[in-house]
Design a protein that fits this description.
Layout: H1 2-31, H2 34-46, H3 48-61, H4 65-86, H5 92-103, H6 106-114, H7 117-121, H8 126-155, H9 157-170, H10 172-176, H11 223-236, H12 238-269, H13 274-296, H14 302-321, H15 326-354, H16 360-388, H17 390-409
Helix pairs in contact: 1-2, 1-4, 1-6, 1-8, 1-9, 2-5, 3-4, 3-6, 3-11, 3-16, 4-5, 4-6, 4-9, 6-16, 8-9, 8-13, 8-15, 11-12, 12-13, 12-14, 12-15, 12-16, 12-17, 13-15, 14-15, 14-17, 16-17
């Protein structure tokens, strides 16, 4: 089951990583307008903040959340194909509207899928499975843009959208076969050593904040009430609140690295394409770091990993800002990836540990939507800075990582409780 889950996750997330660049390339190829292409990309990402929380509630209420994820994959792929078909045929405003609607489903491909992991792996294998799941994001981040570049060069910009939709469709069998909400009833979690934060709605429920009926218990309640409760869980539970806020700030800074990489490549080598190599090095380094974590499997304090991963990511961006040669930029990109990979694994581990089982999907999709929207904001801010110089954008990104570390550590009391029982 875990192997099928991972195969589906890699396919879906690679398609997700391809979707933005694919629309950008296709829009530019068909219309010749950079403005239209950029607005299609913005439309696909800006609506995630709205769609994420609602998708989470629906996934938590579903007895077969895999079926809902299947519908989301189909809807996302259909939206991309409709935009592709409409390019040059219908008004740009209508296509941007379609991209916005499709973007509402985006968090299902990231946080919504990851939220199902405990049902697939079970508590005894969750730590290692979580590291493997995080690696799927690194693989997708490495493969997605590369596939867009190769396909666009070989077959043209419009073909990239078709390949992207094909990957999303390839993930459908894995999503459909995900276990039902009752398959793994929430049980005392050996990786959780302390109760939910005082005042949290999770208090007084089943061990780990869960309930015997898993995700199906909210059927008789108003969706609005569950939305409020999900946000309340994040707001009242200190580890969840800090992880959610800190990761959003960090993601805004990460956008500075993504936007400035081509500019840095051009400044150092005269070829902006070398910036893609820097991003590939970052993704590969993150993949390697997560592979080490998955093999080791004995991390005890994920909160500390989250802090240090963010700090190392910021250090890599600061090093890149001062790089005077391309080899130095490559080293800096590797340092950034060595922090970004474990940071993501730690973030998922904290969410799995702290989120009540009956609200887990909402916690994950809300967090994913906030990160997507934060990345979009960071991208918009990075543009003018990178136009001035790549170093200024990278320093701004490093400053945001410092701010994220402050958010993650302010008022934090490390209880030293293990998050994984020794094996």
């Amino acid at each position: 089951m875990l192997t099928r889950y991972m195969a589906g996750a890699v396919a879906a997330r690679t398609g997700d990583e391809m979707s933005g660049p694919a629309l950008l390339v296709a829009g530019l190829a068909v219309t010749g307008s950079p403005l239209t292409a950029s607005w299609l990309l913005a439309g696909l990402t800006v609506s995630a903040a709205v769609g994420g929380p609602l998708l989470g509630v629906l996934l938590d209420r579903a007895r077969r959340p895999g079926r809902l994820l299947t519908c989301c994959l189909l809807g996302y792929a259909t939206g991309l194909l409709l935009v592709l078909y409409g390019l040059g045929r219908v008004p740009d405003a209508a296509l941007i509207g379609v991209a916005v609607v499709a973007g509402l489903l985006g968090p299902a491909l990231t946080g919504g899928w990851t939220a199902q992991l405990p049902r697939v792996a079970g508590p005894e294998r969750l730590s290692r499975a979580n590291a493997l799941d995080s690696m799927s994001y690194n693989v997708a981040g490495l493969a997605g843009p590369a596939v867009v570049g190769v396909v666009a060069s070989a077959g043209g910009g419009t073909l990239t959208v078709l390949v992207c939709a094909g990957l999303l469709v390839a993930a459908l069998p894995a999503a459909w076969s995900l276990p039902p909400a009752r398959a793994h009833s929430p049980a005392p979690d050996p990786v959780r050593a302390h109760p939910a934060a005082p005042g949290s709605p999770a208090g007084g429920s089943a061990p780990g904040g869960g309930v015997p009926d898993g995700g199906a218990v909210g059927r008789g309640r108003a969706v609005w009430a569950e939305l409020v409760e999900g946000f309340a869980v994040i707001g009242r539970n200190a580890p969840l609140r800090q992880a959610t806020a800190g990761s959003a700030v960090s993601c805004c800074g990460l956008a500075m690295l993504v936007v400035s990489a081509p500019v840095l490549g051009a400044e150092l080598t005269g070829e902006s394409g070398h910036g893609a190599l820097l991003l590939a090095v970052t993704a590969a380094s993150g993949l390697a770091a997560n592979a080490v974590i998955a093999a080791w499997g004995r991390v005890r304090r994920w909160d500390r990993v989250l802090v240090w991963g963010t700090a190392v990511l910021g250090a890599g961006m600061a090093l890149a800002a001062g790089a005077g040669a391309f080899w130095a930029a490559v080293v800096a990109a590797a340092v950034a990836g060595a922090g970004e990979g474990p940071q993501l694994t730690a973030l998922f581990s904290v969410r799995h540990r702290e989120a009540p089982a009956r609200l887990r999907s909402q916690v994950f999709t809300t967090g994913a939507s906030l990160k997507i929207t934060s990345f979009a904001i960071g991208s918009a801010l990075a543009g003018p800075l990178a136009a001035y110089s790549a170093g200024s954008a990278l320093l701004a990104g490093a400053a945001l990582q410092t701010a994220a570390v402050a958010v993650l550590t302010t008022g934090r009391r490390d209880k030293g409780s293990p998050t994984e029982a020794p094996r």
